[in-house]
Amino acid sequence: MFSKGKYEVKHEKLASESESNPSSVKRSCLPKIRPFTLCLVCVVIYISMVVVPKIQEENGKKLQNPKPIGPNHQNKPSDLPKPTTTKDGPNGSPPSKVCRIKVENGPLIKVNRHKTYVIGSYVEHRATKEIKSIAIMQRHEPVTYYCVMCCDGVNISTQAKYSIHSDHYNFDYGTADIMCKFSHTCSAPTHVAITANNLAESITSFQTIENRVIPKSLRLNFTVCISVMFDYNKVLDLIEAMEMFTLLGVQKVVIYKTSCDSATQKVLDYYVKSGFLELIPWTVEKHIKVSMGWQKEISPGELHYHGQIPALNDCVFRYMYQSRYVALQDIDELILPLNVRTWTELLPELEKMHGNDVGFEFENNVFPFTAETQNKYEQDAWKNVPGTNILKYVDRIPNDPYRFNNIKVIVNPRLVLEATVHGLLKTVNGHNTVRVRNDIARMYHLKNCEYPRGTHLIRDKRLWSYADDLIKAVSKVLQDCGFT
């Protein structure tokens, strides 16, 4: 169905177990044991089984929870904790401690002594193999980072490098990548902590390193990344979006949620339970003063629009080896193909036209809720549900061909190095995105907004081609959740 390109998941062959045939063993008679020899054997056994373990136990007590070791320090046995194998917690749950330090997986972990917050840490398999931690950092703060890695029960420390993404809209905080090189003494770390330059300072928690192994195949075709949900209360809009995603062929939706009302939470829980939704608590507002918009002069704050950009980047890396494509968009946006029905049919056609080593961008088209309503698909049972019946709005504002119109993208996540709200900043091959012609597909942005008086709206009924299936699906969810 989908072509495989240079940046697709490569199938790694598993090393086969040795199947050597056991050699034939000849029986032989044992030599006679003299009494002196027997006594010597007993002494050796006593020393190895009683005396040596006691010495090891005494030494082990002195080495618990050591402080991180500097990158230029040559590790000695006395510097390292007693190696312990990482074990799962009860019922196969992740371990609560590794290297004798608690495991904390976010959503945001503060780096001590710095105005930096780590979101997620992932193994970067492309180009140089390293650990990449997606972070939010104060752009003007002088920093020196170290990566402390837990490897087979041992703390290994290396100096880190960092890069701040260019799209920060002049806010004080921006998205950053903190890169940790693998140590020659630790080729497969399981957990990492980002620390400040004071290595004598004990770390307080480790974060699990994800994407440690590239799977042989991808379990999903399409994942939608919804960057932020805050103060949300439009139950009907949410259900309509989720069911439209399903009709388009999406198999997973990821939402970074700050806040919503109880009715919305009931719907979110419904989709989480079904396995269709991953809900990630987005608590950035507890640490940083976020802006309500993208212009600092109009919407004051320290970080662009609720931390939308770092959330999108984390989603790309979170699903890099789970999904063939990710769509980076908002909950009120639908990318609709015009000649076929689903993304499953659309993407192979786009690959034939443009290749499989680029992302695809879709131009924004606004369908304002302030336009005249069309009541062909009016649903009486939906009237008391908070939100809007999107099938009532099929008039769009014409785009100005001489101005930049916003876009959203569908892209193979393994091509992406840095993502932003309207496209990609960096890719592994230097190719960003190609614009999909609007007679093939376009983005339908359904929202409450004003438009200039006298504007000639364009009638566009494409959404109605999904109406029967959408009404049936939405009505079922409303009933299942107790709204109708």
UniProtKB/TrEMBL annotation:
Biased composition (Polar residues): 17-26, 72-88
Enzyme class: transferase
Cellular component aspect of the GO annotation: cytoplasm; membrane
Chain residue ranges for the region called Disordered: 1-27, 61-97
Annotated localization: Membrane
TM regions (residue ranges): 36-55
Keyword Glycosyltransferase found: yes
Keywords associated with the record: Glycosyltransferase, Membrane, Transferase, Transmembrane, Transmembrane helix
Basic and acidic residues composition bias: residue spans: 1-16
Any Pfam family matching the protein: Glyco_transf_92
EC number: 2.4.1.-
Membrane-related topology note: Single-pass membrane protein
MF terms in GO: glycosyltransferase activity
Protein family according to the UniProt entry: Belongs to the glycosyltransferase 92 family.
Designated name of the protein: Glycosyltransferase family 92 protein
Organism, scientific name: Triplophysa rosa (Cave loach)
